[in-house]
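Input for the complex:
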Amino acid sequence: MKTGFRIFLGTLFVLGLSWCGFVLGPVLQLGTQGQAAVLNSSDIYPNQRPGAATLGLQVYRANGCAACHTTQIGQDGVVCDVVLTGAGSDPAAVSNLISSLKLTGLSKDEADAVSGQITAAGGKSETHIVPVGPDISRGWGMRHSVAEDFLWDNPVQLGSIRVGPDLANVGMRYPLDWQLLHLYAPQSQVKDSMMPPFRYLFKVQKIGATPSPDALQLPEGFGPPAGYEVVPTEDANNLAAYLVSLRADVSLYDAPFTTASAPSTGTHK
Amino acid sequence: MNEIEKKYSAIDASCRLPLLVLFGVASLWLVIGLALEIIASLAFHKPDLFAGCPFLTYGRVLPAANNAILYGFAMPAALGVVLWIFARLSESELLLPLVPIVAANIWFLAVLIGVVGILIGDSTGFTWLEFPRSGSILLFAAFLLIAISAMATFGARRERVLKPPHWFLLAALFWFPWIYSSANLFLIAWPVRGVAQAVIGWWYSNNLIYVWLALVGLGVAFYLLPKIAGRPLQSQYFALFGFWTFVLFAPWCGIPQGAPVPSWLPTASTVAAFLMAVPLIAIAIVFVNTIRGVNIECKGGPYCYAKFAMAIFILNEAVMLIATGCPHCNAVVGMTWFMPAQVYLQIFGFFAIVICGAAYESLPGVMGFELPFRSFVRFQHWCFIVGSVLVALLLAICGIEQGLKMQNPEIHWHDITAGTLNYLKFSTLGLCLLLLGSLMFAANIFAATSTWLTRQAKAVAASLTESFEAEEVKS
Amino acid sequence: MSDDLKNSSQTPEGQKSPTAPVWIFALTLLLLFIGGVYFDRHSGWFDAQVYAPYQSSDELASYQPIAGAGAVLLEGKRTYEATCASCHGADGLGKPGQYPPLAGSEWVNASSFKRVEEIPQLGISGEIHVAGQDWNSQMLPMGAALSDADLAAVLTYIRHSWGNNGSEVDASDIKAMRALVAGHPALSGEAGLKAIKE
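Predicted:
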């Protein structure tokens, strides 16, 4: 290699290539995205987060919640379940057919074949699209995260490591009160949690003439001394509102699933 | 001293002040950064240790520590070594020496603003880019200033043919301004919409940790190894091929599998990570051939540092090949402690060791006297090796175990986190060893600086006394 | 020191002059080919809608759920709760003295939906007998602004909920009905309903 100029040109070329691929490309493809249509509905998704939740995203950013939590779930695959919706004129024949067939965990082609068989026997059936994967089985969401889920967020806090559980759909699992209690004293809601208590987001104040309606109802051993109450600050309320707004349970073209199928109860596993 | 020795002695002396300031800034932030890392890791020993203090909560201290180490230590130390290498390869004294001195001070201010900004809650929220705007603008300006001095010195070379260290270090000088400005413009100044932010964030992180640090580290290692071994870099065609394939494929890695982005992005990264086998093989061949048959006693000196760092680099690249080039592996370990383990290995196991080795190699010549604490060099070597390997190994095993358990939805999340705790607690020990090593590095730098300052003061005092006595004699 | 001369690119004496390493070029081409095959299979060819685990736009299109009864019921429920539940109640029991119930209503449960489908479209006022009680209130045409699919979904939902046992209503039925009754005034009570041919 003779001259510095050749190195400059070569480096310009290779870095420019990757810049076009991973900066310009996504800006043109994803940065111009709009809201998407929800499948089998006239809704569009996503709606902008309510004001407190948008402020809560900034509290999330300022306190580095993304250092321990991700807000993105993946999906290993998708299967079809065939569900009988009508027995038709010959229920006995259809019932005999059903008992001999595999109806869950099918590929699309297999599901179409089974559907055809049921129709031929006079029954009516429906094919349900079911996402599968460890994140979904764990109750962390109903389908993989897509770009639309983060459309309104600035900055996007995807997180990169799961020291704590994923939060993509935490709004489906826990109500606002639980979030406030958990922020003040995580160990009171989750035994042996290693999340640090965010006590500085709250104020411990002397109980006035009447207790404040916002005071946290903490369990034994986690409450303030007698005569005092714990009240959330604006930051805590905004952060809790943001966490409660985190839910991505709509079916979209790029993340399809059958909405009528019973969602997993999503208890904290 | 013969002519050649005199020339190089003058070249080294011209680098003295810039290097002292840059290494001083670097060693100070290395100590502070590692102290912050230890504070962060204390969260896993006792979660409610800093519960009432917003400035020391894990989510703020960890980014502050990472940024302090990377922008406070790694970059200034790298730039100092680059200046020295360019001066020596050009066989010319360092040009514009005042510029790096000013820039180093601006750099210190930038990192101070940045780290304090993160701790008070002004972090931007993007990994490796958390410095608030004022800090990052100052940092960028300081980098450009130092690059100007480096390019001026490079331009003064007499031999027009470039040597392998030139390729890597010139590429690095060009790389950082582009990725840093792009990332700051698209993410912080005029933020793009939605998940495109995450893609640009991943592009930047990968290019900073796995491309920029590698370019500088390889350039420095490919300068040190031949210099100390007393023979030229072997297999130069492989070196050239390795360089070009490295800069071609490496910038495309970094998008994790399962990311909420269209699948062409993680697929492109998987293919690029897979193709990294080629530069890895080429660089490994160059390294092995260069050190083969060389009989130098190491004794924990700069040669040891360079050899160990290169071995760790090759190991880390091979691990990356599997962990990111194989989509199934990436799906398992992608969001676990395995990824930080690789970052630690890259920064401490490879980069810090090679750059400290270069610092130790340069200092005696640059200062004109031996290191104040010579035994610390070997001690630091062992602290860094054991510390970085301990942290990386513990976190890697922790991550693999965590990842495999995450694949099984039957395992309660609580059991998964409980299983990681012991690894995290022991990794604090590794961090303490790294801190010990960094204190030794800082001790040498600051002692050398103070020795030099005292000598300067004595020289000034002596010349004043002389002129005073001369006047007395006259009168 | 003279060691920097050792960094020169000249080959030392006595060594063979180095040949370009062809095998590594071949390896690179092989890996590029394998990478290309992988990219072809998994990237969806830059389609913005193809995400892992789907591997192509065709595969994604094949897994789109067809609007089945389940989806209609859920959509109908959502629209009902937004449009009708404030008066008729989320439980379909209405409000005593004000709004008649839909649960157990003979008009909702009728085997033909031709009468009940005109109620939300045109509105109704005047005397009407529902589930054993007499009612005399006014209902505005709450369903006139809904799309064909949404109104069909609501009607399907109320005919399938709270123990009701009616048939489905299709968007095409609603479309036909709307063409038929365009410009008609509100229905006048039970007499108006009975005037509709079933």
